[in-house]
Batch of 4 targets.
Target 1
Amino acid sequence: MYVYMLINSIRTVLYIGVTNDLARRFHEHSDTLGQRNKFTGRYQANLLVYFELCADPTQAIACEKELKGWSRAKKES
């Protein structure tokens, strides 16, 4: 399982998620660009800036929650 973070090109939007297939999920996000009903499409968050491999889904979800709890400054560093 992977935890990952996407940003848009002007660094105003962050998206954090969990997946078991990082390449597939990134492709799915890329396919939504311009689609107003999808978060990553609406805000064009299509740059992968961070990912972490986790041992299992429970660990991945815990890591995702931790990342989402970080301050904006910490996420950007």
Target 2
Amino acid sequence: GGGGGGGGGGGGYPPQHQPYPGTMSMAVVHTDDAATKLSDRVRRRCFNCCTTDTSTWRRSNLSPGKVLCNKCGLFERTHSRPRPEQFPHKRGPL
């Protein structure tokens, strides 16, 4: 004896056009607190320059419990002071 079966179906939807793709689809919270658990909704933010995009996150020594981006973390470690927001691309009195 033997048996058989089968069947199938399918359906397609027309592509839906969103006015702002990917915007506010999920509210993402950014935190500069090192103790905060990260998730798909919680992302890191640099305590110093507020960037959310960096190759690696570093813990702040000057502000314990805060996270810094790679650049701010390295600057702080090297100079023992926060990385300045304005950079000397404009010559002016220091």
Target 3
Amino acid sequence: MKLYIHSGNAVEIYESKQGETIDQLQKALGSEIIFNNRTILNTSMLVNSFFNDNDDVIVQKVKPIPVQQNVQVAAQKPIHYNNITKFAFWDADDMNVRVVVELKDIAKHPLEKFQARFFERSFEIKIHDYQNKNWTFGVARTQCKLDAANSKFTLKGDKILITLRKIKKEDNWFSIHKQKTIGGDDSD
């Protein structure tokens, strides 16, 4: 297959080998190829499957941008979280479940150091830099579904007060974690 390779004002004819991939073609040319003003993303394709057989194809040779070799990127350390396992909860009323987590002087901790996420069947609260550690508290699968948009947390003294808004009045939260019950339905 014959290809016309355009690089600036110069044009060279390139004979593609049978079974050659776009990646091999780019390596042979020493540059990335742009076809119809688009970068070819799947470079493992065969040249003859990308272009029609025996076509004369015009491609542009793009000069690679030189990369500085001495640039060092600081590796981001993964954030480690300690799990909070001590908490209290109760089915507060028809529409709310309350969860209390006690941590000394937590209300004095800056609010921007908290992250809260509520979903249909789970929630998570992350606390950054509290007593020089990162903490997390959450439930991966709650007993019943939550109204995530109306669930919230507040800080008061030594406590994080979490209000989980129920979807249904009749939901009974005998556990904060989803429990299988005899004859119960595990589908929701």
Target 4
Amino acid sequence: MFSRALAHRRTTLQLAFQSAAELITQRIRQLGGQAHAPSFSTSISVLAPAPAPFSGMDILAMSRLVADLQRAGRELPEAGRRLSAELSALCLAAPSGPQIVDAGLWAEEQVRDLRQRLNTIQRQHDLGTVSQAMAGFGLFGGHAPDPDGAGRLTAAAGNGDATALKALLDMQRTGRDRTLAARLNAWWRHLGAAVQDRLIAASPNLVGGLNGLPATVRDRANRRCLAGRKTAITAELERLRRTSEDAEAMVEKLEQALPGRPTGPWLVIPVELEELYRSSRKMDEAIRELGPEMRQITAVENGLALGGRNGRPPALLLQLELGGPGRTAISFGDPDEADNLVTYVPGTGTTLEGFTGDANRAAVVWDQAHYFQPDKKIASIAWLGYTAPQWEATLSLNRTVVNTNAAEMGAPALASFADGLHAAHKAASGARFTVLGHSYGSTVTGLAAQQRSGAFADQVIFVGSPGVGAVKAKDLGVGSVWVGEAPNDPVGDVGSLPLQFTGTFDDAAPYLLKVSGPLGVDPSAPEFGAQQFYVKDSGDPAHTFSAHSKYWDVNSTSLKNLGYLINGQYGALIPFPDPPVGSAEILSPLATSPSPQSPSISTRNPSPHSLPSSTPAGG
């Protein structure tokens, strides 16, 4: 918006001078003189020499722009007034003078805001290029379209309005505004340290959930919330248990006072004793209700404890929502500083109470990627920002694993989280963003990628995928799409089940409509067009579903290949073994190429297995 406004003012200024020059030239000719109207042109100091993808903002170039605007604001009004006087002296009526004055006043108005914003940016960044978020909203935020009123909400939130903070979180969950995280990043960085501290102290649960804020800020806010909630629950449990013990002692005392302690339905219980019974039941229920949340806290603490050991960096708590199904995100490594980032999205059966295992998967992925490239900064994130389907909820329309409803509700949250990673990252370019979806988490990932086509991640990786909500890899809008599937993982073959029509025709038989499983076509099928990486058969019988959870086994082929992929070390991938002599192998051309250095990887289709009647313990 600012560039368009600047271009409009430049054009208006140029036309004003051109028009005035032509009028003066005509008058000179009318008076018998000879004159030619000069040609006017202007330049903008921040234009790139050639069209190219926007990667950030050069601070020195922007400093020159502000200086140019400041000079224009100082000189143009005087030039406009002088021009008006000259035109009047020649009895020429033209709007050129006021237009030039107006351009100068506009430039002067912009300088006041831009100078303040640029000074803030310069205090936080070294000279060089700053991120798109800071360029787009840190400097030019006043010119950005804002259909949902995020600017109004951030202004109120900066004044401590918790309702506005909550409204921003609600807006974030919809995933509609892909610029929201960048707005929030710029807004937060322009707040003073004292204001930031007050917001974290007053509303840590809200601040910690805002995508786009620096990872260390979110960690600080969420840890404060975690500790505060643990203290409150611990105190409440202690109070309830102490009160319950007192009530039980009183019940026993009153029961002993009953004459003969008769039993049976004819027993008349004193009112006081009945009240104690009722109170005791309520306290027991309250204790039971607090139990799950306390177990969630323990799981998060255990996940965080995996950081800072075995050479890993300290863990950062990027999201925390306790109670109910619960949500969280834990990162091993600072995603704002990382060269290579991976976000792992778990699948069916995942709960916050059992999240320690998922955090461990992210930790071992960090271990593997770091082992292969110790000179690179790695950030490995375990993200449970959606309500994963549960096996016991198969008959529930929105929590079942047999449709995409849960994924459709979770995809906007994942898309927004990815927006935040991009917005908060300090480097303007050069980082590799990966999203790794496992089981039903691959369905969430596929749908989220389609909501941010071209801006979601540099690559997506699917393991044990029953379908990603797409017919072709190219539909995801991601440069590189990788699929790994253990030959003895039956979940990976769900997409091959003929349960629904896709609305497209079969490549091999153009007269037949393609069919797929309930979550989309099998992404490991050659016609899907994804790159395949080798996963070794674990040797477990398919009906046990054990292979579905072994992609992260230490020293496994799959974990090593995940590490190579996250680092972009495509040439080092462990290849598929050569097929036995005389065996047939299905091959197809690659639809997408992850990089010019990528090896030629087979798109073989793992041998199908029929699904047994039993269900896996979880995704």
